[in-house]
Specification:
The chain is an alpha/beta fold. 30% of the residues lie in helices and 22% in strands. The radius of gyration is 23 Å and the shape is elongated.
Length: 261
Amino acid sequence: MDIVDFSGEYPRPAVLCTIIKIIGSAPQSVGQRMWVTAGKFYGTLGGGTFERVVLTEARQRLDNGADPELKEFSLSRELDQCCGGRVQVFFETVRRRKTVHLLGGGHVGRALAQTLAGMPLDVRVIDAREEWTRPESLPASVDVLQEDPAAYSKRIEWSEDDAACILTHSHELDFAIVSHLLTTSVGYLGLIGSGHKATVFRARLGPLTESWDKKMHCPIGLPLDSKNPKIIAVSIASELLETWGLRGADHTRLPAGSRAR
């Protein structure tokens, strides 16, 4: 059986299970891999009880965030396999990718989704308006949800691997989302608007003012003097990558002033 190519995009988080060594007989060969998520798996290590045991082990590792580990399995009567060999499987947990949640699918939100597509990030656009949640003109890799952004912000379990860009059509909707997200562990929080809007929102927050000062990027993006949605999208993407998206990633940085040729 051909080895499945996992160089493309598969659901995350997951555990990649790879046969490293075989002693004796086994239903698969060295190098065979299986990608295991909480509800699905891709590829095979040969089926039967052995594969079910590996699936169970992999999903337990998803639950407890275990470190990479090499484990050996005996294909004996205990596993209802007649091969009689021993198989070493390497378990490697693959974290979910960082996710950018674009709360608002208007002109800037869609331009930002287009700008971020193709980067090592998952991108999701959320808007309650049907006309702004049609997938036309958006890359296939972008998830689009027709849902109230405030309700969405409350049902998501936010972490440092999440970025929220608040880009809705309503100041009151923006404020409702801000008020909630300031109480979460979201990794990046940005709000579209002017300096005046930032001052007004901050004054309304009361005890959340300190959290605003620590977390909020408002006006969102680098200070580029333009109202063009595409330029605004580039300014937001640049700030997002610099302050959050590339943080902790292994990227080679060029010396200041240099350019790749």
